[in-house]
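User: Hello, can you help with two protein structures?

Assistant: Certainly.
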Amino acid sequence: MTRGVGVFREAEIPVALEVFDAATGSGREVDPDYESAGVELDGTLAGWACWGPTPGTEGTFDLYWIVVDPGRHGSGVGSQLMDEMHRRIVGRARLVLIETSGRADYAATRAFYARHGYHLVSTIPDFYAPGDDRVTYARAFIARSARDAGGRPDGGATPLPDAGPRPS
């Protein structure tokens, strides 16, 4: 599936598979630094996402990988994965970061993140390779006080509304 998407460089594919194995416990113990979700349709994995808390931070998470079978693009599988990640991090996350490519063939990916309330926060030119910028998106989450949340155990954390980029 990762290779079939057609946008990942050949060197990225073994990294994605290593993270997948660590997150799912394929062949070994699950790595507690990773959390993951998958969508299965007709008995086949249609998409997979992996995220986790960013080491050394308070409440910051990274979305490491999200991959949807190319035949399922536009079917809502990616949105299901994003919604599941958001559901699972409520009450723990205050910020989620996503790093992606600035190449033209990633335009649909960047638009997908924007539709899910993520905002462009940085671009590093030629990061991955000449002409391949690193583009970082962020989405802030807020945790309401227990009083405001009605005593909910998750603290009533909710994603912030899509309010556009913050001034620097």
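That covers the first. Now for the second protein you mentioned:
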Amino acid sequence: MDRFFTTFKTAGQGLANQRKQVQLASENMANAQTTRTASGGPYKPKNLQLIQRGEEQFKATFLNTVLKMRNSNNNHLQGSDLLQNDAGTLNLGPQASVVEENRYRYEYDPGHPDADENGMVQYPDVDMVEEMTRLVSANRLYEANLSVIEAEKEIIKRSFEI
């Protein structure tokens, strides 16, 4: 039973990461010309940094799953015990953190209210092509994770037909 939940949790983690990627790319594009924020200074472009799980954690999770399959003690007959296994505590899939980057570009505009004494205005360095690429990529990966969920649902459904 753990296997069903871990597949959904892993795909769900992927969905959450891609949703965050879309949000950050949209925020960067919307603030590409923002020279002043509430915290002071220009907007800082944000990026989603994925943290991959190490090989050791994969091995530990895999061995734990194999050992559970070998040590069956008829828990499948007790419905409430099934949901109390490690399915809720497994942390599968990449974790993500938001990173603000200090990337700026300068433009000469002496009439701008945020211009320095040389007439230069500091803008966030947001590459629109790169942000659009992130949006398209995140959209495709989001769809792929949805396909994983649909495939797993179909596998579960067919296994009950046997």
